[in-house]
């Protein structure tokens, strides 16, 4: 998933499981479970009947490069199967460089040798 190129509403996956039983025992529904303490469920919308996973909001690579969760398929007779899913968020060039201060100054003596460091700056990402 791209942090800026995958728009909300994009179908990411259609999970599908089959059950050889008939009647209520053959009806499959789905559940999605995020790890305890995960703050990433809001990025997705999940249909428990169809198994369709939709991107609800764009995750930010700098704070959320990997989103793990489990999808479970359950039949009407309380039998289930689970699969571990990992969504990898790809980085985009969405942050401009920034200086650590809004202005810099340095005083240089006239007799300072050539090629001397007179000012060091730290440049980071927004």
3D architecture notes:
Helices cover 0% and strands 32% of the residues. The protein has 126 residues and is an all-beta fold. Strand 3 (44-46) and strand 4 (52-55) form a beta hairpin. It is rod-shaped and about 90 Å long.
Strand and helix map with partners:
Elements (H helix, E strand, L loop, with lengths): L10 E4 L14 E5 L10 E3 L5 E4 L10 E9 L5 E9 L8 E3 L23 E3 L1
Antiparallel strand pairs: 1-4, 2-5, 3-4, 5-6, 7-8
Task: Throw out a few tags for this protein.
126 residues; 8 strands; three-stranded antiparallel beta sheet; rod-shaped; 0% helix; 32% strand; mainly beta
Question: What's this entry about, in short?
Answer:
By secondary structure, the protein is mainly beta. It has strands at 11-14, 29-33, 44-46, 52-55, 66-74, 80-88, 97-99, 123-125.
